[in-house]
Amino acid sequence: MPRQRRGWAMHSAQNSMPGHSPVIISLLEPVLLSMIKENPRYGYSLLTDLEAINMGTIHPGVVYRTLRDLEALGWIESQWDTDQTQGPPRRTYRLTDQGENALNNWKNELQKVQQVISGLLDQ
């Protein structure tokens, strides 16, 4: 965790820091992969879907940067959808086979972390 983010847990809900906790941001990559696997989507749709699953309002720049990183890794691919009748073309993201493997690895790792969190919360 970057040094400047240490101490974030000391902020209460009433006195919250701007932005999100490092825990929520660390889940962005597997959440995006999972959403794109479920249904190919464009960026704005992903932003609204993140809010719908209670991840809050994550800055669009963070989401789009993560999408570019996932595409550079070969985990997703995108293409411009120019068939729309209204508005500018949209970039639609799809999961690749390599992205499917990455998502499965994320799921395995999250199951391990879930056990650690359960143990911590039970104390």
Protein architecture, described:
- By secondary structure, this protein is mostly helical.
- It has a single domain (18-122), classed as Winged helix-like DNA-binding domain superfamily/Winged helix DNA-binding domain (Arc Repressor Mutant, subunit A, Orthogonal Bundle), CATH 1.10.10.10.
- Helix content is 53%, strand content 11%.
- It contains five helices and three strands.
- The chain has helices at residues 22-26, 28-38, 43-52, 60-72, 97-122; strands at 41-42, 76-81, 90-95.
- A hairpin with an 8-residue loop joins strand 2 (76-81) and strand 3.
- The model has no long low-confidence stretch (mean pLDDT 86).
Keywords:
single chain; Arc Repressor Mutant, subunit A; mainly alpha; 123 residues; three-stranded antiparallel sheet; 3 strands
